[in-house]
Structures are given as C-alpha cells and as structure tokens.
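Subject: for your reference before the review

Hello V.,

The reviewers asked for a structural picture of the protein, and I figured it would be easier to keep everything in one thread rather than splitting it across files. Below is the amino acid sequence we used in the manuscript, unchanged from the supplementary table.
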Amino acid sequence: MRATSRVTRVCQGAGMSRFVIAFALVGCTHAQAPGPTASTPVAAHYETTTIALPGASVDGVGMDYLLYDPRTSALWVPAGNTGSVDVIAVATGAIHRIPGFATTEVERRDGAGGTKRIVGPSAAALGPAGTVYIGNRGDASVCAVDEVALTIKACGHLDAMPDGVIYVAARHEVWVTTPRDQSVRILDATTLAQTARLAFDGSPEGFAVDAARGRFYTNLEDKDLTLAIDLATHATVATWHPSCGEDGPHGLRFVDGDGLLIVACSDRVETLDVAHDGRRAGALATGDGVDDVDYDVTTHRIVVGGAKAGTLTIGALAHDGAITSVAVVPTAEGARNGVAGPGGKVYLAHSRPGEIVVVSPVP
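And here is what came back from the structure prediction:
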C-alpha cells in the first residue's frame, strides 16, 4: 500500500510564503529549560504524508507502541483490533501483515460510557538479532517474531494484560509493564516463561534500560513518581518526582553516555540527570495529549506527538540535559507515540482513521 499525500510544510527563517509562515510561527516558540541552553538550530522544512493501514474498521486501527527496526529498515505496527502486526518497509511503503494474533473485547477506559472495544497486539520491542517481541493485550501474551521471515516463533502468557515491552540484553530478559495489576513481569527471553513478578504501590507506565548502571526505569503514573530498579536484585534503588501533575508521567527514554532520562508528561517533556539523584536538567513544552516520547541518537533530537494538540514537537537535546525547541509541526488530532526513523523522519500512530502519519524533513 502506498503512502497518500497530505502535505504541510513548516520552516523557520525569512523568505516564506504566507501559507508557510502561518505554520512556521508554531515552530518558532521556545520553552527554556533550567540552566544553560544551546542556541536554537534553524529548523528544516517538514512535510506530512500518511500511510493507510489495511483492515481498518469503523473505529479505525487500534495502535499504541510502534517500533522502528534499524536492522531491517522496517516500521512495526501492532494493529490491535485487526489481530495482526503490520510491518512497513520504510523505503517503499510496502506493508506485510503478520496475522494470527488473538483479540478480545474489553470495556473502554476513556470515559466512553461503558462501551467496548477490541484489543490485540499493542507493543513491539527490538530483541536480539533476528527477533522482535510483540506484546498482545488480546490474550495477555508476549510473542517472539522472526524479524526477517515475519513469522511467530514462540509465545509466553501472563495472568495480566501487558503494556510496555523491552528487551534487556545484559540479562537476556524481557521486562513487561502490567499496570492493571500494578506490577512488572520479567520473562526469559528465549522461552518467554515468567521468572519474576515485581509488585508496586502504583501503576507502572513507561520503560527504559540503563545498561551501564544495571537499571530499569519506569513511572508510577498514578503517583507522579519515576523509579530506578536494579536489574539483578529487583530492588527499587531510587525514587524521583518529575512533577508532571495529576496525569502523572508517561513514556520514558534513556540517553546512554549522557545519563539522561527523558520523561513524557501530558503537555511537556523533562530530562532527569540520573547521575545526580534525578535532578531536573531540562524541559520543553509540547502540545497536550502526550503519551510516549522517542529520541533519535543520530541527530540528538527528541520527538513527541501531542494527540490533543495535533502537533509533533521536535527538540534538540544538549549533553547537559537542556532542551531547545527546533520545530512544532502540525499533524492531526489523535496522532501520537511518534518514533524516530531514518533521515530524520518521524512516524506517528493515528488510530481513528487507521493510518501512520509520516513527518519528513525537506531540504
């Protein structure tokens, strides 16, 4: 299936048409982080296109966590209510469907008056070479999928619905957040058998691994806390207060080398310095409706979609944790959970129409 074009250009600087300037002004606002900040880079032009997903119902395609796999140059899209995972070759836009994942009907948790929705595969995580892990809410499973053959290899089942999934290479484990029963599950990465259950006084949300310090990071969304957990002992070794407010902290990304933990709040992102007891090192305001955040290690850019605002915010991350605004690109209301891809592209899940919104820099 080919991408459909819905182009919006955004830039900063002089010499723009009125149409471009109207959108460029959005990208010219800057949220200053505490402490010294780098000078704001000049933003490139950006354009948005869409990729329609197969099998959309009247409710679209339910999506949560996406994955860009740099080993195969493919975007993995767990397409919940369709019972499949769509794998998109980013160079061509061609879509390969992996069917056969279980789905189930659950009560909505979005204040929709007791109506129901279909859930299924919802998370994808890069595993060891040859493997991508898929978390499935439809049958509370985590499955290993061959990233080249695109076939399901093995599955393990939990007694609670999985949310976030991440591979911990140093321990050959898969860590899974299960917020509905306030726990994190640890699985053997080969057999996908559960080896431990870590209980918390709150709902774990977000996930990141710090290999150098041997830590797993997660938030307690309903407590407005961020936790550092020792990978070996499973003890909580630090508790920090990102001060996201009553909505709590959501997604996390860890920046190796700089020791910075990026925390997504509902209307901004913050950086915590893990080497200095989680000191708040920087912040950047974003459009409202943020759930997850991603970081592009090649460009040192933070990318975050605001679903309520219908915008993608791009920020430059300095080594000291300060964040400087690069651009705010109009996308679509409901577009969220962007992941960074090659060439500065960002892919966002847009569930209602059943599409991926692609934001691309234009020289």
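For the response letter, the relevant points are probably these. The chain has one domain: 3-362. The chain is about 5% helix and 45% strand.

Happy to draft the paragraph if you're swamped.

O.
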